[in-house]
UniProtKB/TrEMBL annotation:
Keyword Transmembrane: yes
Keywords: Membrane, Transmembrane, Transmembrane helix
Organism: Pedobacter punctiformis
Transmembrane segments: 12-35, 41-61
The protein's name: DUF58 domain-containing protein
Amino acid sequence: MKKILRKYYTDLFLTNRLFIALGVCVCLFVFSFFISFLGDLPYFLFGALMVLIILDFILLYRKNKTVFLRRDTPDRLSNGDDNELKIYLENFYPFQIKVGIIDEIPFQFQKRDLWFSTSLSSREQKTITYLLRPTKRGEYDFGQTRLYVQSPLGLLSRRFNIGTNKTVPVYPSFLKLRQYELMAISNRLTDIGIKKMRRIGHSMEFDQVKNYVAGDDYRTVNWKATARKGELMVNSYTDEKAQHIYCVIDKSRAMKMPFDGLSLLDYAINASLILSSVALVKEDKAGLITIAEKTGSVVPADRKPTQLNKIMEVLYKEKTRYLETDMEALYISVRATLKQRSLVIFFTNFESMSSLERQMPHLKRIARFHLLLVVFFENTSLKSLSEEPAKDVEGIYIKTVAEKFAYEKKLMVKELAKHGILGLLTSPQNLTVNVVNQYLALKAQQRI
């Protein structure tokens, strides 16, 4: 008996409408002491309210099959992207109901006011869609979904605790993979609003002889095929294939800096995953090396169908370290792993010229054997400070210092170029687009 009663009172809640009605009854009882003509009206209204409460209770509890709710959660979430989740509802009550939903999302989102309210007619179905944007990789624990149902009387609310705890892993950004793969096929990223980088030259890897169409380069006309066929034919060329593309990710404390909820390491990981995907679409071989105070994970370059999943699984587990990068260990890993000339894209960060100079000897040694592209980040906070007008003497001082640091970042690119090393200075939000563009440009220029 105790268990049955507990089943009811633990999931039964009083609504604001009931408290208002009780307040009205209390006021009438108080006024009846001073206003005689109220008579038995307060007793009548209070009795009617008790009857309605009992009726509301019966409406909510008399059926076994009441409402159906299901939360559709992806098997994995994409880090830094808006992930879509759905809550499916169906009403089996013979009357219209009002529902409120609390979804227990993982604590990492620090969101305690995720409340949805709607109404459903009898046998009506609804789907509620909402977005979650995780900013850290790892495991996220979803709790139960709390459903609060009210009948048309609206005096009581019945709670349903639906579902069980579910753990969902958050992987590096994979939702944008398909988008960038399509861009890579056409060698352009203009469709997403990014200015296309000028690419000089084209590959001389022969593909096929085809009919001339307007816009083809007249220098590629195949005169022998034209004479045989009796119509204008041209040679078609394609990018060279099976080139080795390695993403080298610095996991040291320099990559711990946050930007828009994500660390620089997470931006580098997301960009590396997308670049690897684009490289595989271009039929190149993608590989990965992570480095901090010692060599981390090493994935040799390959273009098997399982290569992208292998890289994703490795990147999922990577975390920021708190020591300086051992560039000697990186050089040894590169020499041991890379057996032919490759494009090495090194994701790191420099905050001063002196930090670059400390690593320059090792970068030069790597650049002797491979095409090295060093990718580092703009300090967007300093950049915004340098662009704001100064209002007082202190503002002038801050603006001058910010401009000095911003200019020093640009000098680092020139310093790298002096030693035959490519440099790419980019803001975190534009990292992926700029890196993919740079890769496509280098392929078009046949520099790999």
